[in-house]
Design a protein that fits this description.
Length: 434
């Protein structure tokens, strides 16, 4: 049997009952080819699959596992709360404490509404911005992914990019028409959009560091100009920090780059591995949300005690580790620059980017600044490299258009092993003709 025989059999069974055999598209390995690996367990920086293979993990459940898998304090806190009831559909003091902590850490946030996923957070924030301004249009950047809400699936990165789906059937053209897109980091396009549509723009939503088309940093001045254009036209500036929140700094990208958005969306890390999302921001805007204001948004399981406990335990741990972000910066630099140098050393065009606990390695000479540039990477070669890395015991995101994530649990010894693995992997790829 192959080293993934059990995963392959499990995938066959899954594909009979779930579209593509998965609960979320990118997991299906469509873009890299082959069949997905089924996981059995994880701890720290390592995951184990159902065939008993172990991997050093750079996916971290797509972001939440900032402190590594199965952190004992998070697991214990959830276990303890679970024994007192899984859900009440009524207020608990946990939610207040959790929101106080978010407000303490994220500079622009004065009030918070808890939801169950990043998608829910962004779609609710967009509705709120439209309700608050009374305007229809939204501005987003090509290659930025903000969840699968209808208005936001236009030119979305991530799974949509991976699968090559242009927009997506099921989104009404009339709704898509209200979504204006500009290339990331392109101020001239952005200014043209604001010149022409300024009065109609409800909000501009942006990943302050783009992590769904690889890892693309904001160029100096980009976020600043975005802020001033929104202020000038009366549009709401939404930082989608579902990925960057607590990952590039405790206060997110807004703290790192010193820009104050009007609304912020959060997810991933704030759930500690359980389903949570949140949106928050200026009190004046948040007070337009029901039941104080007229913009309706609700959730049966929102503020769920298990999710809130996992998230709160994470945030308290984060607050208590003084060297967390310097360590994450150092790890993501070592991994991304190390892999880039290994690839270049083998004669392969490669570039890298990193900030806090996220990084990207692109099979393109220069680090891309936009989705348009990211797409120029040698995706076919990345795909072969991805599989060669799996055989070496390293689990990268199964797509050339995803960021990598390090955790505080990754060790220097693991980084050294990953760089050795990269050398062996690229040698194998080049030896087999690619
Ligand atoms: C993951 C992600 C989302 C969507 O969050 P889900 O929890 O998957 O719905 C939204 N925005 C950004 C920037 C993300 O990375």
């Amino acid at each position: 049997m192959s080293r993934n025989g059990i995963s392959e059999a499990m995938f066959k069974a899954a594909a009979e009952v779930m579209p593509g055999g998965v609960s979320s598209p990118v997991r299906a390995f469509r873009s890299v080819g082959g069949t997905p690996i089924f996981f059995k367990s994880a701890s720290g920086a390592e995951v184990e699959d159902v065939d008993g293979n172990r991997y050093i993990d750079f996916v971290g459940s797509w972001g939440p596992m900032l402190l590594g898998h199965a952190h004992p304090e998070v697991v214990e806190a959830v276990r303890e709360v679970a024994s007192r009831g899984l859900s009440f559909g009524a207020p608990t003091p946990l939610e207040t404490e959790f929101c106080e902590l978010i407000i303490e850490l994220v500079p622009s946030v004065e009030m918070v509404r808890l939801v169950n996923s990043g998608t829910e957070a962004t779609m609710s924030a967009i509705r709120l911005a439209r309700g608050y301004t009374g305007r229809p249009k939204i501005v987003k950047f090509s290659g930025c992914y903000h969840g699968h809400e209808d208005s936001l699936l236009v030119q979305a990165g991530s799974g949509v990019a991976t699968l090559g789906i242009p927009g997506t059937p099921g989104v009404l053209p009339a709704l898509a028409a209200e979504t204006l897109t500009a290339p990331y980091n392109d101020l001239a396009s952005l200014e043209a959009i604001f010149d022409r549509f300024g009065e109609e723009i409800a909000c501009c939503i942006v990943e302050p560091v783009a992590g769904n088309m690889g890892c693309i940093l904001p160029q100096p001045g980009f976020l600043e100009r975005l802020r001033s254009l929104c202020t000038g036209s009366g549009a709401v500036l939404i930082f989608d920090e579902v990925m960057t929140g607590f990952r590039v700094a405790a206060g997110g990208a807004q703290a790192r780059y010193g820009i104050t958005p009007d609304l912020t969306t959060l997810g991933k890390v704030i759930g500690g591995g359980l389903p949570v999302g949140a949106y928050g921001g200026r009190r004046e805007i948040m007070e337009r949300v029901a039941p104080v204001g007229p913009v309706y948004q609700a959730g049966t399981l929102s503020g769920n005690p298990l999710s809130v406990t996992a998230g709160m335990t994470m945030l308290k741990l984060i607050r208590g580790i003084p060297d967390l972000y310097t360590r994450l910066d150092d790890l993501s630099r070592q991994v991304s620059e190390g892999m880039r140098d290994v690839l270049r050393g083998a004669g392969v065009a490669a570039s890298s980017a990193h900030v806090g606990g996220m990084f990207g390695v692109s099979f393109r000479e220069e680090a891309p600044r936009s989705y348009e540039e990211a797409k120029e990477a040698d995706v076919a070669r990345f795909n072969r490299f991805f599989h060669a890395m799996l055989r070496q015991g390293v689990y990268l995101a199964p797509s050339a258009f995803e960021a990598g994530f390090v955790s505080y649990a990754h060790t220097d010894a693991q980084v050294a092993r990953v760089l050795e693995a990269s050398e062996a992997a690229i040698r194998e790829v080049l030896a087999s003709g690619g």
